[in-house]
């Protein structure tokens, strides 16, 4: 199968096993070669002022292929990291915490597997920091000398859509977990400053804060539960680089500045460097922290200008203005980091970027790769691994002149045909006579119409699956506010005034592209707009919108305000700024139920280079100059995020997805025109149905347990789950130690153990039991329980502890083994603590979540692309569908629906029902499979928690005993959440109905 048919030749979860051969022009030949492609540097050729049509395309290579240069440092580091990655864990040479994280990230049984490129980026940083900190240190420091003086900066190059936010979360976890375990270490830090290129991406990065309800560490399981405390202790601040601009402390006129300054010149009333750092550090919660880690998201706007006498001359006014803005952004960003380094210290700077290149105006050759890049997983790698969409571009038209299709480099061809065809200045500087949408160049309008027709075919395919609930998105990237306004008006409709004076009449002109028109068939504005006009540069800076743009988008802003009111948004709509509203619309494009859900077309004033991660973009139209391949990749990157991340079960590969592009002279993956457009996988909404409110199930959100003790005897009930077998696998008894040559010796743990009185070990374990489990509401030890706990512990040693081989009961002097014993003893004691707290006995009660004490099926509302769905009966389940992974899950739902005794049931999927339990000395969370409300003859139904378990280990036993002996009694004692019970099915639920009825028999008989 050739490249044109299917570019995906690797699984995203493993190192690339193949790559496509490239010809001299940088195009894939369709020949699949073994092994991974080496990292190569591509230096784009600068656009000449006078050139033939063939030169208009931004070639990756010249005819001789001399523009390909291997990235020597990256390839050398990659070789060492690959060798290190293949070693057994015991030879990794990292801390125990790092080793634990690496094994956790690599685990192939993870519910959400990490991409190889994500693991490689962090593994490279770990290798350079922990494994071989000096091997490449000098090379990296030399690479930083000119553009990052005084900073140690490393960059990971990762294609758009490959999960850079996840990588930042992994970096934070690696540092924070290690620092929490070894606070004196100088290698790690627990203070992080994350710097984003704008507000949109800053807000999106809030998931890197451990306190965020959808924080990435728990949602993606980036950190094992027992290490999460280290991440939670970290200080993590998130800002956009604009925050480094010194603020004006006082509003003082120019005259007063001069008067107050006297002979020294105008007096400054702006922040000093220290004040700026203090402000940003305070906002980022980093006050008092030293030697922080800086994480740059998309830091191609962050470097020190190269010192050179040869100033670059840029003739084109638009390109020159853009270069000046890039240079100013880079100066502000790097100056802010340098200020932090001077004031509080910066340990290291990590860049995670799809385009870590120098921009025009930097003093470096435009598009040059940052020399401090240490790992590279670029766009071609991402496409071959299926991680991103494949961009498709025009390759042939019927024009006679020129080798390239006209729509390939649309903007330059428009200017060639009519130099005055598009406004060259912002809207505020254009005369009204030039602001007529109908006078836009025909080449532009025909390109928009052609791409729209293809969009319509995709739209129709998606519309045939109404459950998708979201339209494909078409984006237009323009050069200035005047062009964007004209294009938006032509696409979506606009208002015109005809006549003069008293005879003047206003009417609405419908948009020329019907699916994008904001004007309905009756000549009125639609309540919900289909096309959005934005100035992404203004939105990203966080400043107030200019009067020009506010006036430009006033109708859209008012429409979105009305929609927010109709949605009963809890915020004060009148206090929201116009920028806030437009930013929310932009951020929620393609998200069902959100403000931007119905947006089909986005017309952007800037490039949308950062912060916009809608994955429903299918078409891109460029109406601006693209001087380099870097700009092409940034803009095309807005359409590269995949819609579906479900691998094909047959191959383990992702299925191919495409983004269709006009007007962006991007030189990769031109073919694909014969591939039929495919809609994204069906997205199904799983939700509570309002008409089924009678089937609602409510449950307590239990965070822990407490006991109201009375001076009554404790009566342990030891069961099979109370037993503990100690073997040499738990702790080796005899170990032979030998050198290569010389005398060896033997380590024998029996020697010390046999000299230790068993009674003293029993006392120690009983003490652990007292300290861990028997405290009053104020945290004071119930010391009067100790003699009783000693007797119970001694009984457990005699009846439940088995020592295999040469192991000894004295080995429980080690705390980790003692904790295992304490958990088993306590769960045996708990049944005697379940009497109500009314003075007749001890009372076991739940500790509820202070902010959300109760959960309910009515809160379930999420989307899934899974196709394994079971349609529920309206009289049995509050939720419309059961999402299942295994057949037995659907089988149990079917059997519950067939039971007359079942009043209602729900599968615990995105329900939020969790049970805290202890295992291995740690508090974990357990999610049972089902809850069923069952009529068992009592005045109110029984809430039966059902767990289906095949093979069972100690952790499963801990879950079951916690449910049976702790959670259920505690919740029932609270007397506020109904009656609860627990049933564990030990096999596939073929006989579930009979087993449930058998479980209820004693209750029915008692009734």
Number of alpha- plus pi-helical segments: 27
Distance between the termini: 70 Å
Total beta strands: 36
- Segments where pLDDT lies below 50 for 5+ residues? 42-67, 427-431, 668-677, 738-743, 836-841
How much beta, percentage-wise?
15-25%
Q: Largest beta sheet, briefly?
A: 6 strands, parallel
| Mean of residue pLDDT values | 80
| Shape label | globular
Structural class from helices and strands? alpha/beta
Helix content: 25-40%
Radius of gyration over C-alpha positions, nearest whole angstrom: 33 Å
Strand order of the largest sheet: 7-6-8-9-5-10
Concise account of the structure shown:
By secondary structure, the protein is of the alpha/beta class.
What would your notes on this structure say?
- The structure is a single chain.
- Helix 20 (629-636) links the parallel strand 17 (617-623) and strand 18 (658-662).
- The strands form 13 sheets. Strands 7-6-8-9-5-10 form a six-stranded parallel beta sheet, with helices on both faces. A six-stranded parallel beta sheet has the order 11-18-17-12-16-15, sandwiched between helices. A four-stranded mixed beta sheet has the order 31-34-35-36, sandwiched between helices.
- Helix 3 packs parallel to helix 5 (164-181).
- 42% of the residues are buried.
- It has 1007 residues and is of the alpha/beta class.
- It is 32% helix and 18% strand.
Question: How would you describe this structure in keywords?
Answer:
alpha/beta, six-stranded parallel β-sheet, 1007 residues, single chain
Question: How do the strands and helices of this protein lay out in sequence?
Answer:
Layout: E1 18-22, E2 28-34, E3 40-42, E4 68-70, H1 72-85, H2 96-106, H3 116-131, H4 137-144, E5 153-158, H5 164-181, E6 191-196, H6 199-204, H7 216-219, H8 228-233, E7 235-240, H9 254-261, H10 273-283, E8 292-297, H11 317-343, E9 346-353, E10 373-377, H12 379-384, E11 390-392, H13 410-417, H14 442-463, E12 473-478, H15 481-492, E13 493-498, E14 505-510, E15 531-534, H16 536-541, H17 547-552, H18 554-566, H19 578-587, E16 601-604, E17 617-623, H20 629-636, E18 658-662, E19 684-687, E20 698-700, E21 702-708, E22 724-726, E23 734-737, E24 745-748, H21 749-754, H22 758-773, H23 786-799, E25 801-803, H24 815-829, E26 843-848, E27 854-856, E28 861-864, E29 869-871, E30 881-883, H25 887-897, E31 902-907, E32 915-919, E33 922-926, E34 930-934, E35 942-948, H26 954-974, E36 979-985, H27 992-1006
Parallel strand pairs: 5-9, 5-10, 6-7, 6-8, 8-9, 11-18, 12-16, 12-17, 15-16, 17-18, 22-25, 35-36
Antiparallel strand pairs: 1-2, 3-4, 13-14, 19-28, 20-27, 21-26, 23-24, 29-30, 31-34, 32-33, 34-35
